[in-house]
């Protein structure tokens, strides 16, 4: 046995000496050329071909890498994928365990009787002297090994199958995230300007308190958008849609956005315009959003000073900026109205697919009409005061009252006063939550509050009739909005009528 180890040590010494001799005699260029031709010779006689799928493609995240990662994750527990070592992870607020391949490990997958090998490759990135943005320390990717005779089949049907499966998993099972843009456009270690948190909002269209007909119309519009990819391609339109949610505070605009995300299974990107310095930074943020997402700008009339250009009170050179200050021409460190319009409807808005843009505002009449036209905001949704249907939904959500639990007299009383009360879902919810342990008292106090508001509104109406100059400014603003060639006349009129709280 001792002689065996001695012989092995001698052999290793000879090999090391030969390696040193080759490195000293032959230049690196010659060694590289020989290695290159040997690899080509090996590939010529090999029955396999290899494809690399890196995590980062240039400056953008490779969507195919994410799809493969998610596909292998979902299939790890099935018999079609085999691996001796798996990583198990669970996020802080996640309810599911995630299976991933270990670093530099491989697994087999079978698709339509064709077997392929996936290898998860992880290497350390070489230190760079200069980089325009932070890069991850590790370089990740997948290597796909297939037989040459199956190459055409795999590159078409199999990769399409992976993409479709991953999209379906994202829609149904994967935890959704709420993203917000980093302050000043700062990027994390992976070069992403968005900071994610798990999205666990419980709002759904079933619990959303609003008119049932309007709710059904929105759900059908969302479903039609998701299922009509071929229509958008055929007509040459970008696969995106815009929604404007407007109405008084507390009418459920944020809950509507959460219900849309839960209904479609989309992530939400909450864009804080006050943290964006320029139009170019705004475009970069858009490029870093994923498909199947909702991009939200809440209270857009408060985020930046986007005044209605038809408003005579606006002076020339009015500031239209978020982080910096400047006019609509833009000075490189400001957000301009044209930059925001290009963000929602320009060429850069087409860098991705299946996106929904949602703007919210409490005062639609303050927005520039260029933001409201079709193509930017395709559907205007007025989130108004509670209706009779809304009250019944809230009574069911907070008190558990189903149809028929309340007496006909109580329901008729609600139906009589709810429209005149002009009460928001937030106000109704607060009243019900406060008395949720005593259902009868909650209903009784809600009726008392509604009647008090009816009386207050009637008194305000009498005061308005006695003072002719009381509402002159509102009437002038209403006339300017209704005379505008932009938008829907009935929607603007409805917004102006309902945006005041008495």
Explained architecture:
A hairpin with an 8-residue loop joins strand 5 and strand 6. This protein has 3 domains: 24-175, no CATH class; 178-383, Rossmann fold, CATH 3.40.50; 388-470, no CATH class. It is elongated and about 110 Å long. With 502 residues, it is an alpha/beta fold. The protein starts with a helix and ends with a helix. It has helices at residues 2-25, 28-45, 63-75, 151-172, 212-226, 229-235, 253-264, 279-287, 300-303, 337-345, 388-399, 408-421, 425-434, 439-466, 472-482, 489-498, and strands at 48-54, 56-57, 60-61, 81-82, 86-89, 98-101, 106-111, 114-124, 138-147, 177-181, 194-198, 240-246, 267-270, 293-297, 355-361, 379-382.
Top keywords for this entry?
At3g28540-like_C, Mitochondrial_chaperone_BCS1, alpha/beta, hydrolase activity, 16 helices, nucleotide-binding, 502 residues, AAA+ ATPase domain-containing protein, disordered C terminus
Rg value: 31 Å
Spatial strand sequence of the major β-sheet = 11-10-13-14-15-12-16
Could you tell me the number of beta strands?
Answer: 16
Q: Indicate how many domains the architecture comprises.
A: 3
CATH architecture of the largest domain: 3-Layer(aba) Sandwich
> Which class of the largest domain in CATH terms?
Alpha Beta
CATH topology of the largest domain: Rossmann fold
Mean pLDDT: 77
**Would you tell me the structural class of the helices and strands?**
alpha/beta
Query: In whole angstroms, how far apart are the ends?
Result: 99 Å
GO biological process, one term: response to stress
Keywords: ATP-binding, Hydrolase, Magnesium, Nucleotide-binding, Signal
Pfam families: AAA, AAA_assoc, AAA_lid_At3g28540
Organism: Eruca vesicaria subsp. sativa (Garden rocket)
């Amino acid at each position: 046995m001792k002689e065996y180890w001695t012989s092995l040590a001698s052999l290793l010494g000879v090999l090391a000496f030969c390696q040193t001799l080759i490195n000293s005699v032959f230049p690196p260029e010659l060694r590289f050329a020989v290695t290159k031709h040997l690899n080509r010779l090996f590939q010529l006689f090999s029955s396999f071909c290899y494809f690399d799928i890196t995590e980062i493609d240039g400056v953008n995240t490779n969507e195919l890498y994410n799809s493969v990662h998610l596909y292998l994750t979902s299939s790890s527990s099935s018999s079609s994928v085999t691996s001796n070592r798996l990583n198990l992870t669970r996020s802080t607020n996640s309810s599911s365990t995630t299976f991933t391949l270990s670093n530099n490990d491989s697994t087999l997958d079978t698709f339509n009787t064709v077997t392929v090998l996936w290898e998860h490759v992880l290497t350390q990135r070489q230190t760079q002297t200069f980089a325009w943005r932070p890069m991850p320390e590790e370089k990740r990717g997948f290597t796909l090994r297939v037989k040459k005779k199956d190459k055409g089949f795999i590159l078409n049907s199999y990769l399409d199958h992976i993409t479709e499966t991953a999209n379906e998993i994202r829609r149904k099972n994967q935890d959704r995230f709420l993203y917000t843009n980093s302050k000043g456009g700062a990027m994390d270690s992976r070069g992403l300007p968005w900071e994610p948190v798990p999205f666990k909002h419980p709002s759904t269209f079933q619990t959303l308190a609003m008119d049932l007909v309007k709710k059904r119309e929105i759900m059908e519009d969302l479903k039609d958008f998701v299922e009509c990819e071929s229509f958008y391609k055929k007509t040459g339109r970008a696969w995106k849609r815009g929604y404007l949610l407007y109405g008084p505070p507390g009418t459920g605009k944020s809950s509507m956005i959460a219900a849309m995300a839960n209904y479609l299974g989309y992530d939400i990107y909450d864009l804080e315009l006050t943290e964006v310095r320029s139009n170019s930074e705004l475009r970069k943020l858009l490029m870093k959003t994923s498909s199947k997402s909702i991009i939200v700008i809440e209270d857009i009339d408060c985020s930046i000073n986007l005044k209605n250009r038809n408003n005579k009170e606006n002076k020339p050179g009015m500031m239209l900026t978020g982080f910096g200050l400047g006019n609509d021409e833009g000075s490189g460190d400001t957000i301009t109205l044209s930059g925001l319009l290009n963000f929602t409807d320009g060429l850069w808005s087409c860098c991705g697919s299946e996106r929904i843009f949602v703007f919210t505002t409490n005062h639609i009449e303050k927005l520039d009409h260029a933001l409201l036209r079709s193509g930017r905001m395709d559907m205007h949704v007025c989130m108004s005061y509670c209706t009779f249907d809304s009250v019944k939904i809230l009574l069911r959500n907070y008190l558990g009252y189903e149809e028929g639990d309340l007496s006909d007299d109580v329901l008729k009383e609600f139906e009589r006063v709810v429209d005149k009360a002009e009460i928001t879902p937030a106000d109704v919810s607060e009243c019900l939550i406060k008395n949720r342990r005593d259902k009868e008292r909650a209903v009784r106090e809600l009726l008392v509050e509604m009647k008090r508001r009816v009386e207050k509104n009637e008194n305000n109406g009498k005061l308005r009739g006695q003072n002719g100059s009381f509402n002159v400014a509102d009437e002038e603003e209403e006339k300017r909005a209704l005379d505008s060639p932009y938008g829907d006349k009935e929607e603007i009129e409805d917004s102006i009528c309902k945006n005041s709280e008495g």
